[in-house]
Amino acid sequence: MRILHFADAHIDIASQRRRDPESGLPIRVLDFLKALDAIVKTAIDEKVDLVLFAGDAYKDRTPVPTYQREWGRRIMRLSQAGIQTLLLVGNHDLPPASGRANALQEFDTLEVPHVKVLAKPAFLSPVDLEGLPLQIIALPWISRSGMLATLAANGETAVNVLEELENRITRVVEQWLEKADPSIPIVLTAHGMVQGAELGSERTISLGSDLTFPGSLVKDPRIAYSALGHIHKYQDLNKGSQPPVIYPGSIERVDFGEVQDEKGFVIATIEPGKPTVVERRILSGRRFIDRYIKLDTAEDIPVKIEHAMPSEKEITDSIFRLTMEYPRSLEPMIDEPGIRQAAETALEFHLVRKVRMEARSRVGDGVGIGSLPPDEQLDIYWRASKVNADDRQSLNELARSIIASADGMADVQTP
């Protein structure tokens, strides 16, 4: 049995940029739709038994009709090909208020053949899967606020809501595993964070306030394959062991935090009594180029900039970011119009300036505070504030992680 597993399509995540004159759609949205087309074509051409989408069709929880139409066209192709398709509801697919429909609800409402939306935790048997010899444990996005509402409705309270939520999910999954037919493969699919996962671009300020699945839940040996969604970086959390626990990653690069990530989907081959085999497929997405220049003196500035620039062939149709770090005194020597002209064939060009300003305050030997790296400036501040040594070390480590995350996330766009 072959299962095509993908997640985090986010087809409308880049909807405010240059538009295609023929379709009227943003060019970057077309990039995401092209990736989705490749996934659908693979499923049909290779006659997979099941397509499993692990959540987040959109970025917006209330997508505009145009994007719903484009997503629907692709899913309908799978339906018309007779391929069973499971759509797990992710956090970006949930409505902003209780009682409202999720962003994938129309497939259930219209009873689209071979397509099933999984909006609540569920156990699916072969009967639920049109006779497919498979059992599915589905865990869509489960929010802390949803758990609070459930507790309130039942007249219950909990000291630690997330701990209570984890305990309940673990119990129900264990019950489903016990009642499952051991002769039929079990696939667990979930949208959320799993302990030990490496964060990609899907960093959120609410990290720590949402449910994190324990690793033991998705690595249970009774499971043949764990199909995850939510993190944009491809990874196998049980590498070299069974079952494979796979985040396939997003289908197209979202921002420069993903510049080094290859994007794609996976096909899992499941056979009773044998190890599950996972084949990763890479999609050819839009090229991202990220370059950095640090200038300390006025010597050979044009040459240094020229060496940092990609070739014209590389720049053409790419998304290109050039980050320049320099002291304020060198700003008049930087030919910004010339840089922009050299990058004019890029689909998007982002010039990010990191200007080092000389501070009036001086430290010890006369070195300007403004010329010091951020971590050294912080250390000076902690000392001046009489923070003890142990706390200074912890604070500096936290600051370094925040600065590293900020550098890797969405870039600063200049006019």
TrEMBL record:
Q: Does the keyword Plastid apply?
A: no
Q: Which UniProt keywords apply?
A: DNA recombination, DNA replication, Endonuclease, Exonuclease, Hydrolase, Nuclease
Residues covered by the Calcineurin-like phosphoesterase domain? 1-234
Recall the GO molecular function terms of this protein's record: 3'-5' exonuclease activity; endonuclease activity
Show the Pfam families listed in the entry: Metallophos
**Which Gene Ontology BP terms does the record give?**
DNA recombination; DNA replication
Say which family it is in.
Answer: Belongs to the SbcD family.
**Quaternary assembly:** Heterodimer of SbcC and SbcD.
Q: What does this protein do?
A: SbcCD cleaves DNA hairpin structures. These structures can inhibit DNA replication and are intermediates in certain DNA recombination reactions. The complex acts as a 3'->5' double strand exonuclease that can open hairpins. It also has a 5' single-strand endonuclease activity.
Spell out the protein name for this chain.
Answer: Nuclease SbcCD subunit D
Q: Which organism is it from?
A: Leptolinea tardivitalis
Cite the source lineage. Answer: Bacteria, Bacillati, Chloroflexota, Anaerolineae, Anaerolineales
Gene name of this polypeptide:
sbcD
